[in-house]
Give the backbone structure.
Amino acid sequence: MNAKYLTLILLLPLLALTAHAQVGEQRYNFALGVNGGINLSKVSFMPRVEQKNLMGINAGLTARYISEKYFGMICGAQVEVNFSQRGWDEFYENYPDVHYTRTMNYVEIPFLAHLAFGKDRGLQFFLNIGPQIGFLLGDSYTQSGDMEGMIDSNPYAEVEQHDKAIDNSFDYGIAGGAGVEFRTKRAGNFLVEGRYYFGLSDFYNSTKKDYFSRSAHGTITVKVTYLFDLSK
């Protein structure tokens, strides 16, 4: 499916939420802020590549609009522009001194429906879910140990990805997470969130003639966000 059409389909729930914002107790709260945290990333390869989580940076800007409170549920929309480090860290169980790590730097933009429960001031619990797109800025790799010796003694190890350049710089998928927010009257709002990103696109070509049939990101993010209200 064409990436533009898939992105539009993923955006439909968010558009529906915006349209639905004409029902319920109106809130009209717009907030801006910053966020920062860490990524724990792997790549879903087919054929499979043995990996452990790669740690990277996730940080950027957040804008949120709360549109209504409907049956006790606070409804809104949130968008972020983040710098995100993803990739993979290969793990060879019988060769602990051999390492290969590929780090991929993205600008990522999640479009999230924001659903929260709690008091206007004090503690709230929230869910964020929606589509996400990303644009590759660049990538780099590190390698150590006797890789050639490992390959000679383990001919079934997957190493096709080592010297392979990234084919597709545009990335898209679905992001979802949950967290807690502490809302204050004057000091702003403080959020802690855990989120998972499931990539729907492949960064290597995946036609029948290509080596990999799947090469998509899977990323756990733990982040802290600070928001200050611009309008209430």
Notes: Confidence is low (pLDDT under 50) at residues 18-22. The two ends are 41 Å apart (CA to CA). Residues 193 and 221 are 8 Å apart (CA to CA). The helical segments are 3-20, 147-153.
